[in-house]
Amino acid sequence: MSEVANSTRKADVTANLTESVSGGSLLKQPRAVWAVFFAGIIAFMGIGLVDPILPALAHKLKASPSEVSLLFTSYNAVMAVAMLVTGMISSRIGIKGTLLAGVVIIAVFSGLGGASNGIWQLVGYRGGWGFGNALFVATALTAIVSLSKSGVTKAIILYEAAIGLGISVGPLLGGELGSISWRGPFLGVAALMVVAFIAIITLMPKSSGPRVTKTKTSIMDPFRALKHRPLVVFGMTACFYNFGFFTLMAYAPFVMGLDEHGLGYVFLGWGILLAITSVFMAPRLQIKFGTVKSMAVMLTLFGLTLLAMGIWTNTQWVIIAAVIFAGALLGNNNTLITTGVMNAAPVERSTASAAYSFLRFLGGAIAPYFAGKLGEWFNPHVPFIVGAGFVLVSVLFILMNRKHVEHVDKAPAH
User: Fold this and answer.
1) Is there a domain that residue 387 lies in?
2) What 8-state DSSP symbol labels residue 110?
3) How far apart are CA 60 and CA 161, in angstroms?
């Protein structure tokens, strides 16, 4: 009976994915999609851009690791709260207007960050950068899915590819420019965002804006969406595993013993694996094993990877190899959970994304500072061990709530 049920589930998943992607080739997209894709790469550079310069920032600005990690905390905290208003804003000024507003805000605050003279100024400007990124990220997913001609699943894969490329190129750019000056990466992003602004304003049609929602979205809509149990399950799962994700991002650079170039190349390898697996491997895992089972395996492996980093913290090659390997696990998980969220509840995609992202980035806001403090209070091993614990909690949480989210492999994209 289990084999029959398994075969039936695989057939349902395959049929659903086939229906979603039958619209056309992944690469045959309107110019507007490619404009958003290009801008997305630059926007997502911000996540990993500061990794290679964290130790240098701590040294040059006379800040502790926990203070420097606030660059992630302010960024993610503002993003979490701002996600709640992105739908309201985009329903009033349209997709194009929201994307352009996000790009301008990122450019302004990254430029101000490059001109700042102290850690607390920089932390504040990163918060502003996070607001711009929230406007862009939430709307970019909706824009690509809405404007794509190849179906929901391939549109999400394209979105995850932009994330992967941005995350992989970000550390490389951060390392190269950071070796000249710690200000370089911030000023570099500001310049690239000017290019992104020009690309969106020239290639994206005005008519693409209002088509997302026919009625204006309320600030309460994301909270109402959280009445749907599947969204809460995915959101809390992401919140827990983001403790591990941002422990790796914010604290690993301090224990590697590498300069800006070295850190840039390590996180480049991490980002390349993240991009490859998110585009090519995750969809196959979803078809063969289903979303929940695949996520549980990827997150378990990620938790064990963090545990290994906690045990062998003083062995440089273990930390480097673990960080790069983690990219493959996180690439798979990011695509799986994003696809699941799109089918989790009968609400607008933008509203579902806002509600999920609010919960997700709460974990990303707490973890970096928490990891830095744990390292200062105890020793460098503890942040990774605690991060591993949170990731394994995310596995238990999604498995305990499995019955509430299994439908995402069968539900047609709404």
Assistant:
1) yes
2) H
3) 34
Domain tally for the chain? 1
Exposure class string for 113-124: b at 16+ Cβ within 10 A, else e? bbebeebeebbb
Q: What is the domain range of residue 148?
A: 24-409
85: which 2 tokens?
Answer: 């208003």
Answer whether residue 10 is part of any domain. no
Q: Does any domain span residue 7?
A: no
Please write the tens of the pLDDT for every residue from 268-277: 999 899 889 9
**Tally of CA atoms within 13 A in the half-sphere of 106 that contains its CB:** 33
pLDDT at 25: 65
CATH number for 303: 1.20.1250.20
How many angstroms separate the CA atoms of 85 and 227, rounded? 18
Average pLDDT over residues 337-353: 81
Q: Are 376 and 215 in contact (CB under 8 A)?
A: no
Percent of the chain with pLDDT over 70: 90
- Residue 170 domain-assigned (yes or no): yes
Identity of the residue numbered 149: K
Using alpha carbons, select from 338, 380, 354, 400 the residue that is nearest to residue 135: 354
pLDDT tens readout for residues 358-411: 999 999 999 999 999 999 999 999 999 999 999 999 999 999 999 888 888 775
